[in-house]
Write a structure and sequence with these properties.
By secondary structure, the protein is of the alpha/beta class. It has 6 helices and 6 strands. The relative contact order is 0.23.
C-alpha cells in the first residue's frame, strides 16, 4: 500500500512581543530567541518523531514570525511560498493587548467577545469578523492545494508555518478537527488515495517541554 501524502502545520514560536500572552494579529513581529529555539526544536521533532526531514513544498504567512520560523525549520536558503491569505486575524482594538488589558480597557467588548467569539458573525471591534477571516483563509487553502499538488508525494510532505487562527481554520476545513494550537505545536494531516484528509497528529508539543 502506498503511504499517504502528508501536510505538516506548525505554529510559529514566541515573538519579541510575547505572543504567548498578547493578541497579535496584523502586527508584524520577529521571533524572540526563545521562539527561534522552539523552531529549532520543532525541526528536530519533525525528524525524530515523524520521520520528516525534507519537504516537497513550504508555505508560510507573509508575517516575519512565520517566514522566519519556516526557514529555521527547513534551512535559511529554502524557497518559501508566502500565502497572503494566511495572515492572522485582525484583532482591531484588542491588537497587542493581554486578556486582562482588554477587560480593563474595553469591558463591554470583552464580555461580548467571551460570549460570542465563536459565532460566525462575531467581529473584533474595528477589526475583522470571524466569517471574513474564515473566507479569507479558505481562499488561501484553495490556492495552496493547487500549488502543492505537483509536489504532493509521500516521501516529501508539505510544510505550513502560520498562526493559531489560520492553522485551526485549515485543519477544520480539511479534516473537520479543531486543535488548540500552542506556540511551536505541530499538526500532521494525511491524505488518502481518495483525496480525503484525516488527522494523524494534533497539538504535538513534547519537543517544547
Amino acid at each position: 500500500m502506498t503511504p499517504p501524502a502528508r501536510l505538516a502545520l506548525v505554529r510559529h514560536g514566541e515573538t519579541v512581543g510575547n505572543s504567548s500572552i498578547r493578541y497579535y494579529g496584523r502586527t508584524d513581529l520577529a521571533l524572540s530567541d526563545d521562539g527561534r529555539a522552539q523552531m529549532r526544536a520543532t525541526a528536530q521533532a519533525l525528524a525524530t518523531h515523524f520521520g520528516i526531514t525534507t519537504f516537497g513544498r513550504i508555505f508560510a504567512s507573509p508575517l516575519r514570525r512565520a517566514r522566519e520560523g519556516a526557514r529555521i525549520i527547513t534551512g535559511p536558503d529554502t524557497a518559501v511560498d508566502e500565502i497572503e491569505e494566511f495572515r492572522e486575524v485582525d484583532f482591531g482594538d484588542f491588537e497587542g493587548l493581554t486578556a486582562a488589558e482588554i477587560e480593563a480597557r474595553f469591558p463591554a467588548e470583552f464580555a461580548r467577545w467571551n460570549r460570542d467569539r465563536l459565532a460566525p458573525d462575531y467581529a473584533y471591534p474595528r477589526g475583522e469578523s470571524r466569517a471574513a477571516f474564515t473566507v479569507r483563509v479558505e481562499r488561501g487553502v484553495a490556492r495552496m492545494l493547487t500549488l502543492m499538488e505537483p509536489a504532493l508525494v509521500p516521501a516529501r510532505p508539505t510544510l505550513v508555518v502560520a498562526h493559531r487562527g489560520v492553522i485551526r481554520a485549515i485543519v477544520q476545513r480539511l479534516a473537520g478537527a479543531e486543535p488548540l494550537i500552542e506556540l511551536g505545536s505541530v499538526q500532521i494531516l494525511a491524505r488518502d488515495g481518495e483525496q480525503r484528509w484525516r488527522v494523524e497528529t494534533l497539538d504535538f508539543t513534547a519537543h517544547l517541554a
